[in-house]
Design a protein that fits this description.
two-stranded antiparallel sheet, 2% strand, globular, 2 strands, mainly alpha
Length: 235
């Protein structure tokens, strides 16, 4: 199918951007790669990596300065209302008795949240003071989700248009600024200022994208490696 002289494969905006970047990086994709060609490509790769690293550092500083939210203490200390979730992890008693409680379908979120903030700050206290360790644990969790979602979105886009490490890093650099935590976070934010909301929504979104990526590999012509096979089995 042709649209205004452009094949349908070029009609996707990420594909157009990525093909342009691949052409820019490789200069002449049809030419036989020589030493200067390889050095240019690695030069672009290093440049895009440094740009991405600078953006992630800026994001990490922002994540480290966000305030703690009021949902953290009951989730970490396991108050009486949260304890009901641990006593009935599958929500069977809610179905049997008809008496509900908060979040009957979020046992694994609460379990992971409580264990992470009972473990990570203690480990980080080897490097920073106890108070700062909590903020640092929040920042590391957010930057992990940030990098994971950006990487998976870049992998999806690259699988459509092709390209190597340079294209992948450039795509991540283009995607990363959309993770707004300040000015436009209410409109296009992905990582919430509240670490509780990030854990309960951002982390499952990362897991869902990872599951979709495994299915994408399964349905493609490429051989499925052991790691995606294990993930598909676990899901």
């Amino acid at each position: 199918m042709e649209v205004a002289g452009i094949s349908a494969d070029w009609c996707s905006v990420p594909a157009v951007v990525l093909r342009f970047c691949v052409t820019l990086v490789c200069m002449d994709p049809l030419a036989h790669p020589g030493p200067s060609h390889v050095s240019r490509r690695w030069g672009w790769t290093v440049l895009f990596f440094l740009l991405l690293l600078a953006d992630l550092y800026h994001a990490g500083v922002q994540y480290d300065s966000t305030p703690l939210d009021g949902d953290m203490p009951p989730g970490v200390m396991i108050t009486w209302d949260v304890q009901k979730i641990f006593d009935d992890p599958l929500g069977i008693q809610v179905i049997r008795t008809g008496y509900g409680h908060a979040n009957p379908n979020r046992f694994f979120c609460h379990w992971g949240f409580a264990n992470y903030f009972r473990t990570a700050p203690r480990l980080l206290q080897q490097l920073v003071d106890p108070l700062q360790s909590v903020y640092l644990a929040c920042a590391l969790l957010k930057i992990f989700i940030h990098v994971g979602i950006a990487l998976l979105l870049a992998l999806f886009a690259r699988s459509r248009a092709g390209g190597g490490w340079s294209a992948l890093l450039l795509l991540m650099f283009l995607i990363s600024p959309l993770f707004q935590i300040e000015h436009y976070r209410m409109s296009i934010g992905i990582i919430d200022q509240s670490v509780t909301y990030t854990f309960f929504y951002g982390l499952p979104a990362l897991g869902f994208l990872l599951l979709l990526w495994c299915f994408h590999l399964l349905l493609s012509d490429r051989p499925l490696r052991p790691f995606p096979r294990v993930l598909l089995f676990l899901f």
